[in-house]
Amino acid sequence: MWVAAGGVMLLMMLLYTYIDLQSNTVWSTNIWDLVIKGRLYDVYQYAVENLNGAPHKVLGGNILSLIPLAIWNLPIWIAQHFYGIRVMDNAWCMFYSHAYLVAWLVVAMYFADKIMKQMGIGPQGRCSAVFLGSTCMFVYTAIGYGGTNDIVSIAVFAMAIYQLNKGSWKWFIILTNVAVAFKPFCLIAAIGVIMLLDKNILRVIGKSISLVALTLIYDVIFLKAPGFIESFNSVDSNYAYRLFSTAFSVGAGKISLFAMGLVFVYIYLYMTKTPQQEKYRARMVVYAITMAYALLTLFTNTGYYRVIMVVPFLHMTMATHPANYRLNVILELFMGWGRTVMSCFSAPDSYSTKFAMTESPLLGMNYGPFRINSITDMFVYNHHQISDAGLPMAGGIFAAALVALVYLNRPTAADPDDTAIVPCEPWIEWLRVLEPLVYVGLTLVCYFY
After folding, report:
1. DSSP one-letter code for 234
2. Predicted pLDDT of residue 430
3. Confidence band, pLDDT 50/70/90 cuts, at residue 2
4. Above 60 in pLDDT, residue 347?
5. Which of 286, 308, 347, 371 is 20 to 30 A from residue 154's alpha carbon, by CA?
6. Do you find a cis peptide bond into 369, omega within 30 degrees of 0?
7. How far is the C-alpha of 304 from the C-alpha of 405, rounded, in Å?
């Protein structure tokens, strides 16, 4: 099955070059341009000038997350700078940059395996969890299709949790700072972990603030950089809106479902007695992260690709209950289908010819215009009744499956027993691996229609 899963991922990388991947690739090569010119401080202004043709003209966030990508992309920058091969117009340069995300997926799963050893999970359970995490629909969506770099923050945060389970608060804080600088969402989970392990409220506050030290230092350094304020304002307001816009009305105004749920989770973690047994404590740490990320995916509008944040922590939590393996696989299958169908009904940038198939290594260059820009166009704009019924139905399936997975796999003090694994029918496991081909087929219909 690993070969089939790798084949599906490779096919998606050959078909899709999403605009986020294009911009990140161009911005990473911009860094080398500015380094040799001695103008790194002008990185935001250089992005606005957009000499290399990135789809986005505002560099969102900080450049720290681009530094590892710039190192990876040094060969394609050399090709562009010395041999005139324009990265933005070369699908194979984009494919090379796309492979960077797969490398980080491998790193994330490597540390997931090491964390599961700390959790007391046996070899069979670890292998199953790594496979389920690597072939999760969310991975295919975020990496294979979207080419988004959330997996880098996930991998670094997994390193931080591994160090924390070894007893190193110092390395946990350092690595979490890096993960937060790359993508801020892991801060939500990290604060919950601190509240689980430390009951001194002043230390909780101090440690939580320390997790954003690197980001604050960066912001101070680049505060006067041309274009930085515009970039900061656009990203800051966008994150705030996406996190807290899902709300219900009350007499005095509105209540954010995410904020309310997160407060309840934090209270639960703070009131939970810190486990003394190391393996049980490691299981509770991972469960705390899983709960936080479940809220993030359920109650925020953070994009069709950001659901990858639950990977691999949800799958590590699933591995703590081998007797639930068959049920877990089925629930996770419905979770992936439900969330992806939601995206197809509600997000025109999800599975899109316009945003992801203009520079395909397999299909070549085609800048459109396309008669059908996305699966959303196919189903929503032409069949409103299908959308009106399908969106809430898919959302309900996704939410029910995710909540059930989190609830049914609550950690216990007893170590997981590999021999208790209830096997799953092979056809169900094959369906999980091959399910992205349904959406691949639909995008090809849109492309050639």
Report:
1. H
2. 93
3. very high
4. yes
5. 347
6. yes
7. 20
Contact (Cβ atoms closer than 8 angstroms) between residue 54 and residue 69: no
Residue 27 pLDDT:
95
Nearest alpha carbon to residue 2 among 175, 139, 130: 130
Calpha distance 8→2 (Å, rounded)? 10
Question: Could you read off the pLDDT of 271-308 as tens digits, one per residue?
Answer: 999 988 999 999 999 999 999 999 999 998 877 888 99
Range of the structural domain that residue 76 is part of: 2-448
Q: What is the DSSP string of 90-111?
A: -HHHHHHHHHHHHHHHHHHHHH
CA 352, 357, 358, 363 dihedral sign is negative
- The residue among 356 and 176 whose pLDDT is bigger is 176
Strand partners, 106: none
Task: For 10-69, write each residue's pLDDT tens digit.
Answer: 999 999 989 899 999 999 999 999 999 999 999 999 998 988 888 888 887 789 999 999
Amino acid at 168: S
- Name the residue type at position 418: D
> Cα–Cα distance between 443 and 429 in angstroms, integer?
24
pLDDT at residue number 61: 78
Is the peptide bond preceding residue 312 cis, with omega within 30 degrees of 0? Answer: yes
Q: What CA–CA distance (Å, rounded) separates 297 from 318?
A: 17
Distance, CA of 101 to CA of 98 (rounded, Å): 6
388/116 Cα distance (integer angstroms)? 42
Q: Which of 143, 172, 86 is nearest to 359 (CA)?
A: 86
For residues 279 and 115, is the Cβ–Cβ distance under 8 A? Answer: no
What whole-number distance in Å separates Cα of residue 111 and Cα of residue 64? 22
> In terms of Cα–Cα distance, which of 49, 48, 47, 45 is closest to 30?
47
CA angle 102, 103, 106 (to 5 degrees): 90
Give me the residue label for tokens 């001194």. 200
pTM of the model: 0.94
Residue 360, H or E segment: strand 359-360
Bridge partners for 249 per DSSP: 254
Query: Rounded mean pLDDT of 318-324?
Result: 93
Token representation of residue 152 = 């880098």
